Amino acid sequence: MAKLPDFLCxxxxxxxxxxxxxNMGAHPEIWLPPRKELHYFDWKYPPQCxxxxxxxxxxxxxxxxxxxxxxxxxxxxxxxxxxxxxxxRLLWEAKxxxxxxxxxxxxxxxxxxxxxxxxxxxxxxxxxxxxAVSDIFRLMPRAxxxxxxxxxxxxxxxxxxxxxxxRLQRSxxxxxxREWLQHFRSPDSVLRGDYVRTVDIWEEFYPRRQILTLxxxxxxxxxxxxxxRVFSFLGVESGQSRVPTTCNKRVHVGTPEQLPSELRLVxxxxxxxxxxxxxxxxxxxxxxxxxxxxxxxxxxxSSRERVTDDRTL
Length: 313
Known about the structure:
This protein is α/β, with parallel strands linked by helices. The protein is 50% helix and 7% strand.
Protein backbone atom coordinates (compact mmCIF):
# COMPACT_ATOMS: atom_id res chain seq x y z
CA MET A 1 0.00 0.00 0.00
CA ALA A 2 1.29 3.46 -0.87
CA LYS A 3 0.73 6.70 1.00
CA LEU A 4 -1.81 6.89 3.85
CA PRO A 5 -2.80 9.93 5.90
CA ASP A 6 -0.40 11.02 8.61
CA PHE A 7 -3.29 12.60 10.50
CA LEU A 8 -7.07 12.55 10.66
CA CYS A 9 -9.31 15.43 11.68
CA UNK A 10 -12.34 13.53 12.99
CA UNK A 11 -14.71 16.38 13.80
CA UNK A 12 -16.77 17.48 15.46
CA UNK A 13 -19.03 18.82 12.75
CA UNK A 14 -19.65 22.59 13.01
CA UNK A 15 -16.67 22.98 15.34
CA UNK A 16 -14.13 24.67 13.07
CA UNK A 17 -12.92 21.81 10.86
CA UNK A 18 -13.56 23.71 7.61
CA UNK A 19 -11.56 26.68 8.91
CA UNK A 20 -8.74 24.34 9.91
CA UNK A 21 -8.72 22.63 6.50
CA UNK A 22 -8.66 25.96 4.67
CA ASN A 23 -5.74 27.32 6.70
CA MET A 24 -3.60 24.21 7.02
CA GLY A 25 -3.52 23.64 3.27
CA ALA A 26 -1.24 26.67 2.81
CA HIS A 27 1.59 25.11 4.83
CA PRO A 28 4.40 23.90 2.50
CA GLU A 29 4.99 20.74 4.55
CA ILE A 30 1.32 19.70 4.55
CA TRP A 31 -0.68 18.12 1.72
CA LEU A 32 -4.47 17.91 1.82
CA PRO A 33 -6.84 16.26 -0.70
CA PRO A 34 -8.70 18.70 -2.94
CA ARG A 35 -11.91 17.55 -1.23
CA LYS A 36 -12.21 18.22 2.47
CA GLU A 37 -14.35 15.20 3.40
CA LEU A 38 -13.55 11.78 1.92
CA HIS A 39 -16.05 9.73 3.98
CA TYR A 40 -14.23 6.44 3.54
CA PHE A 41 -14.42 4.87 6.97
CA ASP A 42 -18.02 5.92 7.67
CA TRP A 43 -18.85 4.36 4.28
CA LYS A 44 -16.98 1.19 5.22
CA TYR A 45 -18.52 1.08 8.72
CA PRO A 46 -21.88 2.89 8.53
CA PRO A 47 -22.67 4.39 11.96
CA GLN A 48 -25.98 3.60 13.60
CA CYS A 49 -27.47 7.04 13.11
CA UNK A 50 -29.72 8.76 10.66
CA UNK A 51 -27.30 10.55 8.36
CA UNK A 52 -26.11 8.97 5.13
CA UNK A 53 -22.69 7.38 5.44
CA UNK A 54 -22.15 7.37 1.70
CA UNK A 55 -19.81 10.01 0.30
CA UNK A 56 -21.72 12.95 -1.18
CA UNK A 57 -21.01 12.04 -4.81
CA UNK A 58 -21.09 8.28 -4.64
CA UNK A 59 -23.69 5.58 -4.36
CA UNK A 60 -22.59 2.74 -2.09
CA UNK A 61 -23.66 -0.06 -4.40
CA UNK A 62 -22.70 1.27 -7.81
CA UNK A 63 -19.79 3.56 -6.82
CA UNK A 64 -21.16 6.02 -9.34
CA UNK A 65 -22.32 9.62 -8.94
CA UNK A 66 -25.96 10.12 -8.07
CA UNK A 67 -28.36 12.52 -9.76
CA UNK A 68 -29.18 13.51 -13.31
CA UNK A 69 -26.44 12.31 -15.65
CA UNK A 70 -25.09 13.71 -18.88
CA UNK A 71 -23.36 11.68 -21.62
CA UNK A 72 -20.01 11.91 -19.87
CA UNK A 73 -21.37 10.25 -16.74
CA UNK A 74 -21.13 13.42 -14.64
CA UNK A 75 -23.98 14.96 -12.73
CA UNK A 76 -25.34 17.92 -14.64
CA UNK A 77 -25.29 20.08 -11.52
CA UNK A 78 -21.52 19.60 -11.16
CA UNK A 79 -20.46 19.69 -14.79
CA UNK A 80 -19.83 23.44 -14.88
CA UNK A 81 -17.73 23.26 -11.73
CA UNK A 82 -15.62 20.42 -13.11
CA UNK A 83 -14.83 22.47 -16.21
CA UNK A 84 -12.88 24.88 -14.02
CA UNK A 85 -10.65 22.19 -12.50
CA UNK A 86 -7.03 21.68 -13.49
CA UNK A 87 -6.03 18.53 -15.34
CA UNK A 88 -4.50 17.01 -12.17
CA ARG A 89 -7.64 17.82 -10.20
CA LEU A 90 -9.78 16.13 -12.86
CA LEU A 91 -7.61 13.00 -12.64
CA TRP A 92 -8.02 12.99 -8.87
CA GLU A 93 -11.79 13.48 -9.17
CA ALA A 94 -12.04 10.59 -11.65
CA LYS A 95 -10.20 8.35 -9.23
CA UNK A 96 -12.38 9.48 -6.34
CA UNK A 97 -15.68 9.16 -8.18
CA UNK A 98 -15.29 6.10 -10.37
CA UNK A 99 -12.81 3.65 -8.89
CA UNK A 100 -14.09 0.88 -6.64
CA UNK A 101 -13.67 1.68 -2.98
CA UNK A 102 -11.08 -0.25 -0.97
CA UNK A 103 -8.14 0.43 1.31
CA UNK A 104 -5.96 0.65 -1.80
CA UNK A 105 -8.36 3.15 -3.35
CA UNK A 106 -8.24 5.25 -0.17
CA UNK A 107 -4.45 5.17 -0.15
CA UNK A 108 -4.31 6.22 -3.80
CA UNK A 109 -6.12 9.46 -2.96
CA UNK A 110 -2.99 10.58 -1.06
CA UNK A 111 -0.39 9.64 -3.68
CA UNK A 112 0.36 13.32 -4.35
CA UNK A 113 1.19 13.76 -0.68
CA UNK A 114 4.40 11.72 -0.75
CA UNK A 115 7.12 13.52 1.18
CA UNK A 116 4.64 15.71 3.04
CA UNK A 117 2.34 15.40 6.04
CA UNK A 118 -1.04 14.38 4.58
CA UNK A 119 -4.43 14.46 6.28
CA UNK A 120 -8.08 13.47 5.94
CA UNK A 121 -10.70 15.89 7.29
CA UNK A 122 -13.97 13.97 7.75
CA UNK A 123 -16.06 15.09 10.77
CA UNK A 124 -18.32 12.04 10.42
CA UNK A 125 -15.47 9.94 11.83
CA UNK A 126 -16.36 11.26 15.29
CA UNK A 127 -19.39 8.93 15.41
CA UNK A 128 -17.54 5.76 14.34
CA UNK A 129 -17.72 2.72 16.61
CA UNK A 130 -14.97 0.49 18.05
CA UNK A 131 -14.70 -1.77 15.01
CA ALA A 132 -14.20 1.15 12.64
CA VAL A 133 -11.53 2.82 14.80
CA SER A 134 -9.82 -0.54 15.26
CA ASP A 135 -9.56 -0.87 11.49
CA ILE A 136 -8.21 2.68 11.16
CA PHE A 137 -5.58 1.89 13.78
CA ARG A 138 -4.63 -1.29 11.89
CA LEU A 139 -3.99 0.78 8.78
CA MET A 140 -2.51 3.88 10.43
CA PRO A 141 -1.20 3.15 13.93
CA ARG A 142 1.10 6.18 13.90
CA ALA A 143 -1.51 8.64 12.68
CA UNK A 144 -2.16 11.80 14.67
CA UNK A 145 -5.79 12.52 15.55
CA UNK A 146 -7.23 16.04 15.72
CA UNK A 147 -10.61 16.51 17.39
CA UNK A 148 -12.28 19.95 17.49
CA UNK A 149 -15.01 20.45 20.08
CA UNK A 150 -17.59 23.20 20.57
CA UNK A 151 -20.28 23.87 23.15
CA UNK A 152 -22.61 20.99 22.19
CA UNK A 153 -25.66 23.24 22.51
CA UNK A 154 -24.28 25.74 20.00
CA UNK A 155 -22.99 22.89 17.83
CA UNK A 156 -26.43 21.24 17.76
CA UNK A 157 -28.09 24.51 16.70
CA UNK A 158 -25.53 25.25 13.98
CA UNK A 159 -25.84 21.69 12.69
CA UNK A 160 -29.64 21.86 12.75
CA UNK A 161 -29.77 25.13 10.81
CA UNK A 162 -27.68 23.56 8.07
CA UNK A 163 -29.30 20.13 7.91
CA UNK A 164 -32.98 20.73 8.70
CA UNK A 165 -33.43 23.73 6.43
CA UNK A 166 -31.77 21.87 3.56
CA ARG A 167 -33.78 18.70 4.09
CA LEU A 168 -37.13 20.48 4.39
CA GLN A 169 -36.20 23.10 1.77
CA ARG A 170 -37.48 25.88 3.98
CA SER A 171 -36.02 28.93 5.65
CA UNK A 172 -34.99 28.71 9.29
CA UNK A 173 -38.00 30.87 10.22
CA UNK A 174 -40.37 28.42 8.52
CA UNK A 175 -39.37 25.40 10.61
CA UNK A 176 -41.57 24.42 13.55
CA UNK A 177 -40.44 23.69 17.09
CA ARG A 178 -41.47 20.06 16.63
CA GLU A 179 -39.22 19.74 13.59
CA TRP A 180 -36.26 21.28 15.41
CA LEU A 181 -36.77 18.94 18.35
CA GLN A 182 -36.99 15.93 16.07
CA HIS A 183 -33.53 16.74 14.75
CA PHE A 184 -32.03 17.56 18.16
CA ARG A 185 -33.15 14.17 19.48
CA SER A 186 -31.96 12.19 16.46
CA PRO A 187 -28.97 9.86 16.90
CA ASP A 188 -27.19 11.89 14.23
CA SER A 189 -27.24 15.06 16.31
CA VAL A 190 -26.80 13.46 19.73
CA LEU A 191 -23.81 11.31 18.76
CA ARG A 192 -21.99 14.24 17.19
CA GLY A 193 -22.16 16.12 20.49
CA ASP A 194 -21.08 13.18 22.65
CA TYR A 195 -17.41 14.14 22.81
CA VAL A 196 -16.52 11.90 25.74
CA ARG A 197 -17.79 8.84 23.85
CA THR A 198 -15.71 9.80 20.83
CA VAL A 199 -12.48 10.29 22.76
CA ASP A 200 -13.05 7.15 24.84
CA ILE A 201 -13.30 5.04 21.68
CA TRP A 202 -10.27 6.58 19.96
CA GLU A 203 -8.16 6.38 23.13
CA GLU A 204 -8.78 2.63 23.27
CA PHE A 205 -6.43 2.41 20.29
CA TYR A 206 -4.40 5.61 20.07
CA PRO A 207 -2.26 6.87 22.96
CA ARG A 208 -3.15 10.31 24.27
CA ARG A 209 0.04 11.82 22.93
CA GLN A 210 -1.29 11.15 19.41
CA ILE A 211 -4.62 12.92 20.01
CA LEU A 212 -5.03 16.69 20.03
CA THR A 213 -8.30 18.23 21.23
CA LEU A 214 -8.99 21.77 20.09
CA UNK A 215 -11.65 24.14 21.43
CA UNK A 216 -13.75 26.06 18.92
CA UNK A 217 -13.49 28.97 21.36
CA UNK A 218 -9.70 29.08 20.89
CA UNK A 219 -10.13 29.08 17.11
CA UNK A 220 -12.32 32.19 17.48
CA UNK A 221 -10.18 33.97 20.10
CA UNK A 222 -6.67 33.01 18.98
CA UNK A 223 -6.71 31.57 15.44
CA UNK A 224 -2.99 32.14 14.89
CA UNK A 225 -1.99 30.48 18.14
CA UNK A 226 -4.34 27.58 17.48
CA UNK A 227 -2.82 26.93 14.05
CA UNK A 228 0.70 27.03 15.46
CA ARG A 229 -0.33 24.53 18.11
CA VAL A 230 -1.62 22.19 15.39
CA PHE A 231 1.56 22.59 13.34
CA SER A 232 3.67 21.78 16.39
CA PHE A 233 1.53 18.71 17.11
CA LEU A 234 2.10 17.45 13.56
CA GLY A 235 5.83 18.10 13.70
CA VAL A 236 5.99 20.72 10.95
CA GLU A 237 7.42 24.22 11.14
CA SER A 238 5.21 26.20 13.52
CA GLY A 239 6.62 29.71 13.32
CA GLN A 240 4.36 32.72 12.83
CA SER A 241 5.52 32.96 9.20
CA ARG A 242 3.65 29.74 8.45
CA VAL A 243 0.31 31.16 9.60
CA PRO A 244 -1.79 32.56 6.71
CA THR A 245 -2.52 36.26 7.02
CA THR A 246 -6.17 35.44 6.33
CA CYS A 247 -6.56 33.06 9.27
CA ASN A 248 -8.76 35.59 11.09
CA LYS A 249 -11.45 35.28 8.43
CA ARG A 250 -14.38 32.97 9.04
CA VAL A 251 -15.01 30.16 6.56
CA HIS A 252 -18.48 29.01 5.42
CA VAL A 253 -20.42 31.32 7.72
CA GLY A 254 -23.87 29.89 8.42
CA THR A 255 -27.20 31.64 8.72
CA PRO A 256 -27.18 34.30 11.48
CA GLU A 257 -30.39 33.30 13.32
CA GLN A 258 -29.81 32.98 17.06
CA LEU A 259 -30.96 29.98 19.07
CA PRO A 260 -34.45 30.78 20.48
CA SER A 261 -34.62 30.70 24.27
CA GLU A 262 -37.21 27.91 24.35
CA LEU A 263 -34.97 25.69 22.19
CA ARG A 264 -31.91 26.60 24.25
CA LEU A 265 -33.77 25.40 27.33
CA VAL A 266 -34.57 22.07 25.67
CA UNK A 267 -30.94 21.59 24.66
CA UNK A 268 -29.70 22.58 28.13
CA UNK A 269 -31.91 19.87 29.60
CA UNK A 270 -30.75 17.36 27.01
CA UNK A 271 -27.03 18.05 27.41
CA UNK A 272 -26.82 18.88 31.11
CA UNK A 273 -25.27 15.55 32.15
CA UNK A 274 -23.10 15.29 29.04
CA UNK A 275 -21.79 18.81 29.63
CA UNK A 276 -20.78 17.89 33.16
CA UNK A 277 -18.90 14.86 31.80
CA UNK A 278 -17.29 17.02 29.11
CA UNK A 279 -16.18 19.56 31.73
CA UNK A 280 -14.68 16.82 33.88
CA UNK A 281 -12.86 15.35 30.90
CA UNK A 282 -11.57 18.42 29.08
CA UNK A 283 -11.81 21.37 31.50
CA UNK A 284 -10.96 24.75 29.97
CA UNK A 285 -13.76 26.28 27.95
CA UNK A 286 -15.98 23.29 28.74
CA UNK A 287 -16.39 24.73 32.24
CA UNK A 288 -18.03 27.81 30.72
CA UNK A 289 -20.27 25.63 28.53
CA UNK A 290 -21.54 23.74 31.57
CA UNK A 291 -22.02 26.93 33.59
CA UNK A 292 -24.01 28.50 30.75
CA UNK A 293 -26.35 25.50 30.61
CA UNK A 294 -26.81 25.60 34.38
CA UNK A 295 -27.71 29.31 34.21
CA UNK A 296 -30.29 28.54 31.53
CA UNK A 297 -31.87 25.85 33.69
CA UNK A 298 -31.74 28.00 36.85
CA UNK A 299 -33.39 30.91 35.07
CA UNK A 300 -36.20 28.64 33.93
CA UNK A 301 -36.68 27.24 37.44
CA SER A 302 -36.79 30.76 38.88
CA SER A 303 -39.36 31.77 36.28
CA ARG A 304 -41.56 28.79 37.18
CA GLU A 305 -41.27 29.58 40.87
CA ARG A 306 -42.36 33.18 40.26
CA VAL A 307 -45.38 31.98 38.28
CA THR A 308 -46.30 29.60 41.11
CA ASP A 309 -45.91 32.37 43.69
CA ASP A 310 -48.12 34.71 41.66
CA ARG A 311 -50.85 32.09 41.43
CA THR A 312 -50.91 31.66 45.20
CA LEU A 313 -51.50 35.35 45.89
